[in-house]
From TrEMBL:
It comes from Anopheles gambiae (African malaria mosquito). One of its GO terms (molecular function) is carboxylesterase activity. The lineage of its organism: Eukaryota, Metazoa, Ecdysozoa, Arthropoda, Hexapoda. Its EC number is 3.1.1.1. This is carboxylesterase. InterPro entries: AB_hydrolase_fold (IPR029058), CarbesteraseB (IPR002018).
Length: 173
């Protein structure tokens, strides 16, 4: 990594901030509740890339396949008609899982693998993509942004990047 290239470590900062603010606290609470209520606690990481968020339309993420906090809400409560057929399928899966959990205490959906309850520290859990995946160790989700950033980068909607916006500067052409 070039020491002068701050943008190379932006994904690391995103992971650290996201972990401290959101993921780590959630998984710790899931672990505590699972000890108190065995077989009744379900953990997930939403990682499905859908249409741009209505909260941040056109936001120039620095790397592809970015999923932001709260992005799952556009599938549970569609606020516009921007869901294509694949996105609509994901929305149906999620609504079925959430509805089943509200009614029976167990999240289930047609043609979806069983979602196991948390039974040990950090797992198992569901990774909500299409189709959903069962994973075993939630700690692996804590480096999500870094792993995605290692893939090929593509230009965002505009030439500005998160870093440009953060530093309030004009993008380089």
């Amino acid at each position: 990594m070039d020491r002068a290239n701050f943008s190379e470590i932006v994904p690391l900062f995103i992971d650290v901030a996201g972990n401290l603010a959101l993921k780590y606290g959630s998984v710790e609470e899931a672990n505590r509740f699972a000890r108190a209520l065995p077989g009744q606690v379900y953990l997930y990481n939403f990682d499905y890339v859908g249409p741009p968020s209505p909260m941040t339309p056109g936001f120039p993420y620095d790397f592809p396949n970015s999923v932001g906090h709260g992005d799952e809400l556009k599938f549970l409560f569609p606020m516009s008609n921007v869901l294509n057929e694949e996105h609509t399928q994901m929305a149906k899966i999620m609504v079925d899982l959430w509805t089943s959990f509200a009614i029976t205490g167990v999240p289930q959906a047609d043609n979806v693998i069983p979602w196991p309850a948390v039974s040990r520290p950090f797992g198992p859990y569901f990774r909500l993509v299409n189709p959903p995946e069962q994973k075993e160790y939630f700690v692996n989700e804590l480096t999500n942004s870094v792993e995605k950033a290692r893939g090929p980068r593509k230009l965002s909607v505009s030439p500005a990047t998160c870093l440009d916006l953060f530093l309030n500067r004009s993008p380089k052409n």
